[in-house]
Fold this sequence. Notes:
It comes from Noviherbaspirillum humi. The chain contains 4 helices and 3 strands.
Amino acid sequence: MATPHDALTLQMLRWISEGARSYAEVLDVWKSTCPRLTIWEDACADGLVDSAPGMSGRVSLTEKGRRLLSRDFSAPPRSDSAS
């Protein structure tokens, strides 16, 4: 992940993974009307998060979201070429 959008997506996934979050709480924090900042909407469309029905329904990471969050994007790419 290299863009600010990607970094915010990871931040949201970490936040959701830290504890139980209701749908209402997630929307309050992450929903945006800005067409360039659609973190919550894109995570839903990309299959990274799931939620139980209703505003009090629990939001959780999907398997795809957990896999994405578990990757270490801060490490520099590994070079296999010998110097």
